[in-house]
Fold this protein.
Amino acid sequence: MALEGKHALITGSSRGIGRGIALALAESGVKIAVHYFQNERAANETLEQVRKRGSDGFVVQADVTRPDQITEMFRKVKTEFGKLDILVSNARPEASRFFQPPLDITLEQWDTAFDSQAKAFLVGVREALPLMSDGGRIFAITYAEGSRTGGLQPWVGMGSAKAALESLVRYFAVAVANRGITVNAISPGWTEDSVLNTLPEQVQQLIRDWHTRGWTPARRLGTPADVGDVVVLFCSEKARWITGQVIYADGGASLMNPEVPPEIQIG
């Protein structure tokens, strides 16, 4: 895959899915801007892993709920790289900053969700485009199930923000199509080494058991590497005709019928 020498910024790439994407791209020769908000140590660890894979990059700090800090982040990207080929908008705040049901969520928590997703993507893409040559790649990491359902009540802020994010992906895809730039959303299912691992251990185990019983037909949870490989795949020139889509990277979990126990569906 002809990615050697390209440059990427992945927001929220100090840990979890963002780190998985950064390392997968680094293995293909992409230089990585590792973004973090608070955990500088984790960001430096990601950069160290990038270098172990034969690539290079730098670390950049920003609060993506602050447009001025997003602008400053891209200013550093321009200084360090001079250009940008791949943007992955992945960062989100800790759950405690937005995780409340619709009857209890504060406007501050609601704004935090939207500012970190749709607004951050809007500002980020507009900052990235002047640095991006024709044929660039832009991704938003979403959770499509959460933006289309209502059962997980405390997810209302982030679910609504992700729905707006997915809509913005489609609008941007049309806006930049004449430059050969594709804009897509990647929707992982439950993934190890991610938000899952911040939940109580009992809850984590319930989720793992549910998916290994068959709710994910692949009978396991995803990994950051799984998601990273999907991003690498869509960075290929052979993916140039796919844009404005929500790509499910969930081992088939989104194919299951929520009204029927998984044991009955796949045996």
Remarks:
- The two ends are 38 Å apart (CA to CA).
- Residues 7-194+224-251 form a domain with the Rossmann fold fold (CATH 3.40.50.720).
- Strands lie at 7-10, 31-36, 57-61, 86-89, 137-141, 182-188, 246-249.
